[in-house]
Design goal:
One of its GO terms (molecular function) is transmembrane signaling receptor activity. InterPro entries: Neur_channel (IPR006201), Neuro-gated_channel_TM_sf (IPR036719), Neuro_actylchol_rec (IPR038050). The structure is a single chain. With 212 residues, this protein is an alpha+beta fold. A hairpin with a 4-residue loop joins strand 2 and strand 3. It is built from five helices and three strands; from the N terminus they run E-E-E-H-H-H-H-H. Helix 1 packs antiparallel against helix 2 and helix 1 packs antiparallel against helix 5. Helices cover 54% and strands 19% of the residues. The longest helix has 34 residues. It folds into two domains: 66 residues, no CATH class; 135 residues, Methane Monooxygenase Hydroxylase, Chain G, domain 1 (Up-down Bundle).
């Protein structure tokens, strides 16, 4: 089950059986330090050992079976500080650069930021595709990166459409100055407020994506 990757837990069931001997010696390792039981990728959070002894009357033999129920939790430090936090900061910086750029070439700036962000996030997707098992559902980290890509793409597309509509409205402003829609699109104050509102919506989407 990898739906919650990299915050998932895995259940491992092991069975050891031994026939023929009348005595089986088990060593209890519960007093060992926890760091000796864990590895760099997995942390041992539960270990249940159950012993069963069965005696076959006809053969005169005893069957010993040891059942191990191990619970492993994935160490999420690597994924949090190498994937989640860097991609979130990168998307945040990209959105700030796209929405608060005050130059005349807003269209070129938004398109450049969008392409750069897409290229960088695709490198993250490549890392995830090599590290994760192929399945019919995306894990939690995969959905996280996918939503980031969607948020940045939609933000850039809206900015391009907004700048395009404003450029068209400027061409008609000299012919029809009394048109309310044209005056609304050409207003610098409305344009800035709209960009700031869209920026807040994009940041909210990234925040909800991180929390959920």
């Amino acid at each position: 089950q990898f739906d919650a990757f990299p915050f998932d837990q895995q259940q491992c069931l092991l069975c050891f059986a031994h026939d023929g001997l009348g005595e089986v010696k088990l060593i209890d390792a519960s007093e060992l330090p926890l760091d000796l039981k864990s590895i760099s990728e997995w942390d041992l959070v539960g270990n249940t050992t159950h012993e069963e002894v069965r005696e076959e009357m006809q053969a005169g033999k005893q069957t010993h079976r040891v059942l191990l129920h191990i619970t492993l939790a994935r160490c999420d430090f690597f994924w949090a500080f190498l994937i989640i936090i860097p991609t979130l900061l990168f998307c945040l910086i990209s959105l700030i650069g796209a929405f608060f750029y005050a130059g005349e070439d807003n269209v070129m700036n938004a398109a450049s930021i969008g392409l750069t962000t897409m290229t960088s996030l695709m490198l993250v997707v490549t890392i995830l595709s090599d590290a994760l098992d192929k399945s019919d559902n995306l894990p939690g980290l995969g959905w996280f990166v996918f939503v980031e890509i969607v948020v940045v793409c939609i933000s850039v597309i809206i900015l391009l459409l907004l700048d395009g509509a404003r450029s068209v409205a400027r061409g008609y402003s000299k012919k029809d100055k009394d048109n309310f829609l044209i005056r609304l699109l050409t207003s610098k104050r409305v344009f800035r407020v709209t960009r700031f509102t869209l920026f807040l919506l994009a940041i909210t989407a990234l925040g909800l994506n991180t929390i959920l």
